[in-house]
Amino acid sequence: MDKASLTFADVAITVNVPAGTRIIEISEKVGAGITYGCREGECGTCITHVLEGAENLSEPGVLELRVLAENLAGKNDRLACQCRVLGGAVKVRPG
Amino acid sequence: MPAPPPPPPADPAAPPGLAAAPSPGAVEVREGLHWIGALDPGLRSFDVILQTELGTSYNAFALRCSAGVVIIDTVKAAFTAEFLARLEQVARYDEITLIVLNHLEPDHTGALPALLARAPQARVVLSPRGLPMLRALLGAGFDSYDIGPVTTGHSVDLGDRRLSFFTTPYVHWPDTQCTWLEPDRVLFTCDLMGSHMCDARLFDDLVGDFTGAQAHYYDCIMRPFRSFVTTALDMLEPLAPSLIAPAHGPILRSDPQAAFRHYRALTGARGAGRGAAAGGRSLLVFYASAYGATARLAQAIEAGAETEPGVHVSMIDLQAQELGPFADLIEAADGIVLGSPTINGDAVRPVWDLLTRLADVETRGKLGAAFGTFGWSGEAVRLIEARLQGLKMRLPEPGLRVKMHPSEAELAEAHAFGQRLAAHLTGRAEAREVDFAELASR
Questions:
Q1: Within a domain: residue B431?
Q2: Would the pLDDT of B3 be above 70?
Q3: Which residue, B274, B361, B392, B424, has fewest beta-carbon neighbours within 10 Å?
Q4: pTM reported for the whole predicted model
């Protein structure tokens, strides 16, 4: 199985995860400060800054792009309930 | 121009004494700018969380420019008829070219559907974050209107006037924005700087004393977003308006700069501890203890945290004092650790009372942790952690649970726990690496 690593900068922890894992599956278990509302890509609550490794995340879909735009997200912001870590290393902090 | 129709009748729901007060028609604020809002003297509860014994007003405005008429915000739905009656005193619906929505909460958009039905040609502008809320409000009708987002730096040329927009999110919803009118130098701040106070005299130099109402509004509505309030004030104060028009309560025309200073003073720290004052970090260790076991853990955690340079630690017994002042302390603190025994499968009431109060202050991003002893089951720690996560805190260390009275080894573990928490505050915490499988039990 392909592996990836996901680092949460605000709680100083790196988790080795299977490729394809979404940030939402991990962040609450390690106490990171990313918060969730609808948990299904509509509300924008879980906007997360990607500090490193944005290229290792799955591409955003049309709805995620709209939610990010409406919430004035920066170019390295993603929805933690949507994006998947595909490989390599990704480092994030709450948005 | 025909004689204006009589003003709307006084609110029959108003308490005795207030019902007899005459209700104004449209009121001129500046030449060509009229208040067309609504008075709600009978309101006694706002947003569930705020008692409003002085009632409130919903301030909406009609602006006549050479390029047409602009409507700035509307009113709560129950007051649609009087809003429209006041609007009709100063403008025809076919003259309306622009509707500005500074905030999508129903007390300001309740009359929007009725307004749009009468002025479907008007362009509607709002913050981008307000779009989902407007979609929900208008439903299938959303696509039939001319709706566009605006952000800081956008402006609309209205011939002899100009409106510019300032994105000021989270004062107090994601969608909030402010609007600036030139050359009149009028700032529409919506809920920011508002007060729940109903007074038909409308202007701050004419109404009764509203400082208490404004402070209470800030405490209940804005305080949880304190950092966003100060950011908004930093953006708006340099505009040096000649008049500030919030969407509730008195219009601030007597001394807008003083109004800014007064509002900024409300955001000031109320419970800054020694740690914050000295430029370091502050950690508060709260506990309740039935037989002294959780208290011993608290002492060990405090001692461990104290070993980290630059962190000031306070230990506070929740049973010994009133909980009210603790919200102030937590607002100023960088981290909190909450200790509770597990009694009847739950954390104890003083801990829940404290956690309830934390909705009043800005907790996002603060460090949180939980600990406690138990005899049978030990649910309290996880319940506390879940609430702290719900308060948008970061919890870098899993909670510490000890059965019965802590042994020397367990006290050493608590000491190390405190040390690690303090290191997370200073940024000196050791980075950790775990495998996904290890998280299965969390």
A1: no
A2: no
A3: B274
A4: 0.93
